[in-house]
Hints:
The structure holds 2 protein chains of 2 kinds.
Chain A: E1 3-11, H1 16-26, E2 31-38, E3 42-49, H2 52-61, E4 66-77, H3 82-92, E5 97-106, E6 110-117, H4 120-129, E7 133-134, H5 137-142
Chain B: H1 8-11, H2 15-36, H3 38-47, H4 68-73, E1 87-92, E2 102-106, H5 107-123, E3 131-134, H6 143-154, E4 157-160, H7 166-175, E5 180-183, H8 185-197, E6 209-213, H9 219-229, E7 232-239, E8 244-250, E9 257-259, E10 264-269, E11 282-289, E12 300-309, E13 321-322, E14 327-328, E15 333-335, E16 338-340, H10 342-351, E17 358-365, E18 368-376, H11 386-404, E19 409-413, E20 420-421, E21 424-425, E22 428-430
Parallel strand pairs in B: 3-4, 3-5, 5-6, 6-7, 17-22, 18-19
Antiparallel strand pairs in B: 1-2, 7-8, 8-9, 9-13, 10-11, 11-12, 12-13, 12-14, 15-16, 17-18, 20-21
Helix pairs in contact in B: 2-3, 5-6, 8-9, 10-11
Amino acid sequence: MAIKQLTVFVPNRQGTLVSITNTLAAHNINIRALSIAETEEFGILRLIVNDEATAERTLAEADYLIKVVDVVGVKIGDEPGKLTAALDVLDKAGINMEYLYAFMARTEKHAYVVLRVEDNAVAENALVNAGFHLVTEADVNKL
Amino acid sequence: MEQRYYQKEFETMPLEEMRKLQSEKLVKQVKHVYDNVPYYRNLMDEKGVKPEDIKGIDDLHLLPFLTKADLRDAYPYGLLAKPLEECVRIQSTSGTTGRRVVAFYTQKDVDLWEDCCARAIIAAGGTNKDVCQVAYGYGLFTGGPGLNGGSHRVGCLTLPMSSGNTERQIQFMTDLSATILCCTPSYAAYIGETLKEMGYGPDDIPLKAGIFGAEPWTEEMRCGIEETLGIKAYDIYGLTETSGPGVSFECEEQTGMHVNEDHFYAEIIDPDTGEVLPEGSKGELVFTSLDKEAFPLLRYRTRDICVLSRKKCSCGRTLIKMSKPMGRTDDMLIIRGVNVFPSQIETVLLNEGYQPNYQIVVDRVNNTDTFEVNVEMTPEQFTDKVSEVLAKEKALANAMKTMLGINPAVHLVAPKTIVRSEGKAVRVIDKRKLV
Lengths: 143, 435
Ligand SMILES: [Zn+2]
């Protein structure tokens, strides 16, 4: 059920981020969700794209340090308090969350949120049992 | 019975006798150099030392040092001590770091050098029944000619392959059942990897020993080569300035290299003061050629950092042992008053499961040295969590602190991002020198 996140190491060098997005654009890869975590020395870029395999190959060929990890995508009803409700579910299930970020596009009824947790299966179960819908690869490709 | 030594008399000579022999040779050598090498005579005169002052090996410390800079100044004939008509050979360094060194040999010098290499081959278990594949470069480089000559002296069937053309190396190795391989350790590792790819296991090839030198290598590399080739891997040391490989060599104990001290007298000095240090101290290795004729360097500073030891060796040789060089004085950095060698950083990285792809950056900010080490990560080490990357940096910094005594800032960087110049990574950037 999990969706694939592409993780790219970004040295804090001017232009790196632009050259990554340019490389992806040149291969017709659309970025669906993006977040960047930064320290003084480096950044870690996390991406959800429409064609993960091509993106991975393209960036690897351009000598970027990359890693693909499985993350949970959850659909959040487009009304106040819904994200908090989802986080509550995970908290009550004792699931540690590393980070989260949102998709850029949204459907009529939902915003999509990416969750990076220790155990994907447990988080997915907890969310589904609480009535949440998960984001699938097919959903990502439809955006 | 298997031959254990090539020249037993010298290799197992009691210390007292050895010192007597060294003293006799030194007195003669100093006179020979003083009379025939104006360049060194000037150095002695400047220091106020006369040949008569050198009565034995204990007076060696009175003599001036020779450095790489002297070799450069005296290029090409300035340190030659015999007329050219008595010389039969030159060998030379590649000259990649500054002006090349050209060393001259009389026939006696060549003989002496080949004897030293023969000692190394016998110490590695070689006999006249062995097939010795010499895959060091031949030509100006000393590796090929030295081991080739030693192999002849032992009576091995010698395969003068020179380096390169790995496919042909492997074909000769397997078709002619080579039992000893002589080459650089990195080439041995490469041959091993190629054999593995071709489907050969360690038991499928008759190799039993390797004699590897001419470049720095680690114990980890030794283990790797021994495993893939199914051999014992022996270290050998030498430099063109002193003759070539065979100045020192490993025996079956593999715990340091026996110095052929009947020909080459070794000292360890403090690289800053030039003071001779006692046995067991770490410092710069200095060699004096006791009986070379054409190119007899006295107190030549090798710039290699190592330790000498007279600890009794189970092989029966009494020749003093030198450790594998731990670094070079020109590599040595003094950071916040502490001596740091890039090789120490390399050791930590290998211990901690990293590739030795790193760069040391030293600078001075507000009168304090800054010390940073950039290390390339592999995709396996990279993670999507910032906290894990930072934890890895911290762990590496701690391991380096334990090794060095001072704390670097470690930065993990992407592969292939450390600056390379002509294919070689630039290991040290010392910005303090630019000021
Ligand atoms: Zn020994």
